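Regression test case RT-17, inverse folding.

Input:
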């Protein structure tokens, strides 16, 4: 945390370089952007670069020895793709990688290592995996282990059920585009338990590649006293049939955050209710294009929604590990809030849940002017300076739609101070 204090004292001086983080694109929201799709949606977007008109310039160079002109350029590609920006892994993170290589090559810096607080990669920060989740996925991946007495019976039961729903009883086969049927059933039952009996239909469940297909979401990470998670779906149900039967709603969950921290498995689900049949058909069509989400990630997601029950042998260990992670995150949330509020020029609201802090930073006018000279948002300039001078990699709030005239950065609480 002393690195933030160092930067606070230096605010308004120095320079940096970078680009603004900004909006991304999701499965349901707004205009999409793909890599090579046709009109308005692909990298090439519009006329095919393989038309005779596109080939004409290249043909002129045949036999001349001159280099062939590139068909795909920044000017000819789909502008929607060119406009996509992802702050979490944008220019600041690229610069952080460069600095790490510079440190490895012996270049002297004011710090010895880069602290990556830009993303909540739990296991990379030392969080231990949940044993039961790894056991089930291991059994699904290598079924010969089902005969191994070292694995608990409840893990084997879940693994066998998942494998029986897979083609050829193998995790290496494609699943249905919407996901493995028994896992979607488990997701629906989980949602009903979570929401106190509010009905959930497996046909409304879509297993996803993490939650990044839609939104990041947290259902277990609630730390503040007298606070608990309330789903929008449950609230709609309590508002009555007029809302519950008509309001379109998409909700998400994943294996990446919470007590699991299994970011690499890319497991998640999306529940969509009250969607127009024609729109639902379009959604299914888009899902079909990707074939299916990773089946190993689907298996991991099944453990999240179908954990050990109190009467099962793995329950006690599972609860100990889960509570240890959540208690650790709660302690870090409190510590993060307290320490940020000790740094001049930083103000941090109480952290009630989630994995991230979004402290507000008060940037001096001179620094704002300097940022403009480099065509940067002020908080991007701040974050780049923070990285260059202290080695801390965070994400500017301008990549998340902050209130106009205010500046923030996002800090992953799982990171080390």
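Golden output:
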């Amino acid at each position: 945390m002393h690195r933030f204090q160092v930067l606070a004292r230096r605010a308004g001086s120095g320079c940096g370089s970078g680009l603004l983080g900004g909006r991304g694109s999701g499965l349901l929201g707004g205009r999409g952007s793909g890599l090579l799709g046709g009109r308005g949606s692909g990298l090439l977007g519009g006329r095919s670069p393989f038309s005779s008109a596109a080939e004409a310039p290249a043909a002129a160079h045949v036999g001349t020895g001159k280099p062939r002109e590139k068909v795909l350029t920044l000017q000819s590609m789909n502008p929607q793709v060119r406009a996509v920006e992802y702050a979490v892994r944008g220019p600041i993170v690229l610069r952080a990688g460069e600095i790490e290589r510079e440190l490895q090559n012996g270049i002297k810096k004011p710090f010895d290592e880069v602290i990556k607080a830009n993303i909540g990669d739990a296991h990379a920060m030392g969080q231990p995996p949940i044993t039961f989740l790894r056991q089930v996925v291991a059994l699904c991946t290598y079924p010969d282990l089902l005969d191994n007495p070292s694995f608990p019976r409840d893990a084997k039961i879940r693994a066998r059920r998942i494998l029986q729903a897979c083609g050829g009883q193998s995790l290496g086969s494609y699943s249905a585009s919407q996901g493995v049927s028994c896992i979607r059933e488990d997701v629906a039952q989980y949602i009903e338990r979570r929401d106190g009996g509010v009905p959930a239909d497996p046909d409304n469940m879509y297993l996803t590649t993490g939650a990044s297909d839609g939104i990041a979401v947290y259902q277990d990470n609630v730390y503040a006293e007298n606070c608990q998670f309330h789903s929008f779906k449950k609230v709609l149900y309590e508002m009555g049939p007029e809302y519950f039967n008509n309001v379109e709603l998409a909700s998400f969950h994943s294996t990446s955050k919470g007590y699991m921290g299994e970011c690499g498995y890319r497991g998640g689900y999306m529940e969509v209710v009250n969607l127009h049949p024609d729109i639902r058909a379009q959604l299914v069509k888009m899902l079909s294009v990707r074939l299916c989400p990773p089946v190993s990630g689907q298996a991991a997601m099944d453990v999240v929604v179908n954990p050990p029950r109190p009467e099962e042998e793995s329950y006690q260990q599972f609860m100990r590990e889960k509570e240890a992670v959540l208690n650790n995150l709660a302690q870090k949330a409190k510590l993060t809030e307290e320490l940020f509020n000790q740094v001049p020029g930083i103000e941090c609201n109480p952290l009630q849940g989630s994995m991230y802090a979004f402290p507000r930073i008060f940037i001096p006018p001179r620094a704002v002017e300097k940022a403009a000279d480099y065509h940067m948002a002020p908080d991007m300039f701040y974050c780049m300076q923070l990285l260059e001078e202290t080695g801390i990699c965070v994400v500017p709030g301008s990549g998340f739609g902050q209130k106009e005239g205010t500046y923030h950065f996002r800090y992953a609480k799982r990171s080390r101070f």
